[in-house]
Automatic annotation (TrEMBL):
This is Helix-turn-helix transcriptional regulator. GO terms for biological process: regulation of DNA-templated transcription. It comes from Candidatus Phosphoribacter hodrii. CDD domains: LuxR_C_like. It holds the Pfam family GerE. Keywords: DNA-binding, Transcription, Transcription regulation. InterPro entries: Sig_transdc_resp-reg_C-effctor, Tscrpt_reg_LuxR_C, WH-like_DNA-bd_sf.
Amino acid sequence: MTVQPLLTGAHLADAQIERILTSSRPTRAQVIGPAGSGKTAALEFVRDGLDDRGVETHTFGAEVDIAAIPAEAVLIVDDLHLIDEEGAAPITERAHTPGAGLVVALRPGPVGEHVRTIERLLQRSSPPIILGEVSATEVDAHLRAQGRPASCACIEDILDLTGGAAWLVTFALSHDHVAECRGRTDHLALRRDLQNQVLQRVATLDAPLRRFIEQLSLGTDPGRPPDGHAEALDELVLLGHAEGLLFRNGRMVPAVRTAMRSSVTHRWGSTDSTSLAEEITRGCLEDDDSIELLLDGVRDPRVGDAIAVRADELRDDRPDHADRLYRVALRAGTRSSDLAQRRARAAWAAGDLDRTGLLVDEAITKASSPADAGLADLAASVLAARDLMAMAARVYGSRTYEGATAVRAEIAHIGSGHLEPHRAPVVLPDDQGVSSQLDVALYLLHRGLRSSLGRTPSPTALSDLVRASELYTASGTACPTPELPAVIAASVALGSGDLATARQVLDDAVTGGQGRQWARRRLLLWQGLVAIQAERPDAARRAYTLAQQESAPVGARDARLGHILEVTLARRFGDLAALQASWADVRGAVAHPDVDLYTIFPLATLVGAAARLGDSTTLAAHLQLGLDLLDRLGSPPLWSTHLWWAGVQQGILLNTPDALAPFAKALVGAADRSPLAATMASAGGVWVQVLAGKVDPDAVEDAARALGSAGLAWDGGRLAAHGARRSTDRRVSARLLSCARDLHPKESTSAAVTQPETAGVAAVGAESELSEREREVARLILKGKTYVEIGEAIFISPRTVEHHVAHMRRRLEAGSRSDLIAKLRLALGATQDFARESPNRAVRV
């Protein structure tokens, strides 16, 4: 198959050449491009075009008398850069004559002053025609013009291989391509032939330039030139570009780099291997296919060690590529005992728990010291991810560690319910100067976690943990840890009743990529749990979907979190049938008791769901293990309240007052030390009275709204709904039903069945712009009703109406009464009928 010879010359520059040929001014131009870019073909196109127009042309040569050539004729000179000053003197003289026709072609790069003079003179007549790089559009147009269009994959792979270098693209297109070329997989022969072309060209280079190209192909720095000789390095770059081996900025053409690396092993025996190993050590080892080719057959531990060091640098950001480099290092001669732990770190960063476990096992058998801190962190974190926090703590045992490992050991020990006061306190490494972000993050994590365990919670505990999470994210570390700082901080925020902080901590951690790739699924699952707690079911489902889309294998800990999230969504935002189906799916997966401090909150949500189905046995062991663990830690309120509350709810749902009593007692006992425990204790007392048939609407509503303010809106909605069902007063029932709708819209569904007068009111999602009750209030406001009249119309108190109005103003961001009225009309699609019905009435909003 024949390729058009003008592909990389006049064929791609024909528009520029055509402008020169059709200009009314004398034909004066220069064509500049690396070797093989098509300069000669461009000159031939110019000559043919001038001949067609009857213009006299002369080609430079020894037999041509330039002085005798008329000015209106055109002198054509190829390879101007090869002509010395004496030989170019008549060309220079002609260039000085503005009306004399002259077209030259030359390579970019170091040239004599006489050549530069000619370039400057010709640039006054027209811009130079620059050849050298080819685009995908140009290749596609060329192939279509030849009647052999190629697929996008084929063209893209050719340009990836060649970098668009014209001489290599021309050669690539001269190859026969299969009818449906898929690119990479169909270009094996092309890759081989391109390498041969490059190696042949490099073999013809002068020794300094050839050595320079070899060094660059290894990714090495050719070194800082001596003072006063920096221009020598610049000249080599220009020469490499002129030969078509480098781009103008000194970057190597991809096919050249691959070809040069393929020849390393042929030179290995005759080259100083120490020097070559040092070159590779200094190199950056780019992410391309030639790394394996570069070291094929090379067995030198120095090279393997250099590659392993580079893999260490890439491990957190690109763990898959790091693992690939570790395998290359192994083949090059690095001892497997030196790499097992480092490969385990890469597998951990990638989120591949099974592979991490296998490599940790290998590293343990080859470890020189059983107390290796990094290996202990890996082994413990793998066990924690498998939901075996107690076993993770046993990995650290009673050995004394320092720095980051000391904090991780503490996370594991405290997580399994062992405070171990005998351990030395963690301190910042002040004696080493300025501490890193990670050092400070772990110190704050240690301090905040310890403080959160007090019987009287420290006011700084949550602040320390939040800042620890922020700094941990900022550090960008992917180091293994038994539990993430964001999870610990969010748990303490939930135990403080501070739902907003829990949400913010997790949102920031997800956005900032805390822990990198391996941590993302767990953070998303916790984000979903907190979204459920905040009455944001759509956000919870989104987080759950994203967590399921993570490609890494799921560990037992994350699997259990996913099951709990699924069941909790069904419990709070589905019907009984959905809950039954969800519980049936996950019951077996959560039946094996294994509880640690950082799963207390998820366990608490699960206990209530099981109790709703009358199942008091499946999680009985879990509940007891959680209580025992908390007891060993001194029953800290920040960690205990949600499990105690779950025990109260279980007693209510199962109608077992005796089982409820110990949990209620614990909440009452912590009430003076924990605002959340006080809220729960008070609400629990009101709930018991409601179940006994004593419904005080003010007490019920106050307790329900207090629960909502403490991050327990769903529980508050259930309390209000129970009060509505138990009351015999229709107005009280309607009022409490409205409160239930405010706190958790779906919670009113079952109560509405017993309230015919409200059966037409539909519950809406918590993330809607306005709830259905707020829409009712809005319609009456637009009719001009007062707060008292609105309350009488829909059986709620004027105070509740005021609460609805304030809520609507916030949601609609209304700055004034008139602004609110206008936005309510838009929200409801209101018409003039409202105004006509009550033209002279106004309502205070």
